[in-house]
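Appendix B, example 12.
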Amino acid sequence: MSKDKFWLAFASIEELGSCFVEKLYNHFGCIENAWTISSSELVKVEGLTKKQISYFLEKRKNINPDECYEFILKRGIKYITLESADYPKMLKEIYNAPTVLFIKGDLGVCNLDKTLAVVGSRRASSSAKEVLNKILLEFSGTDLCVVSGLAAGIDTVAHKSALEAGVKTIGVIASGFDHCYPSANRQLYKDIADGNGAIVTEYWPTFEPLSFRFPQRNRIVSGLSYGTLIAEAALKSGAMITANLTLDQNRELMCMPGSLTNPNTEGIYKLLQDGATMVTKAEDIMNALGWTFSKNNQVRTTKFDLSEQEQKVFDIVAVEPKLFDDIMNLTKISFDDLMSVLTMLELKGIIKQIDGEKYASCVKI
């Protein structure tokens, strides 16, 4: 524990970067030596610039490692360092691995051998959200762990779908724990940390969610994962950055196809043309990653005993979400009977209402 204070001291220096810390650690072989080393020894470290060395030395003057440790301890924030035995093995393999991970929740409940990153547009289409939800719900009852960035749009759907499916999820944020971005996800943060996975960050609690930190955050999302599923991505987007990081990290890249008229799918089709695996169901992910699940925890198709009318309605909404009037016109079922059928299907967990108006399937039958 005595060494931890030096890892934390490094982490408290804004804009220092993991690469700098790891170079010192590897050169001196001890994090305490890396922190206390003289300026004359620092210049001997290969790959460091004079500007970096000067910045570190100036900041170090005003930092007490014992106070850094006490600060984190008093806040009740868990952490792991690059030296920790439980540091995630997949993350440790990447270039510029975070030297410290701060944690809320419990990373230990997450199966780090079955991690899937899910990323995409912040302004995702309702269609992409529905399809992603459907795919992730097919993993219900498994020990999958969904990793995403807790941003608006696809990230939010990924985390919420994981919670709905009863699988664990890891949210990687681009700030310290003093900040919640976006603020609309405050309850989602709490739900994940409260027994359903973990929120992790490499940033000191006070560090703000500045724009340059989001691309840095993306390397952790993909780095924690065996593969990345891109749900929607414009040609120039954070999701495309994550896609490239996934390939750089030699991990499996998968894409969910979408409407050809949606500009947020332009990046998807480029990635598919370049060789990414197309995903339309959970089985595609399993095949791409070579995963299987035990008999009790397998991806399975749910079977229900449906009446003739229930089956007729389900067959329609399984193709695409439909309005009540459209379903009534297509099935010729009376208003009162259709209300009853839709209510029963919702109670059975087979369909759900989306956008407050349409009915959509939430299972495969």
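The chain has 17 helices and twelve strands. The chain has three domains: 1-74, 107-297, 308-361.
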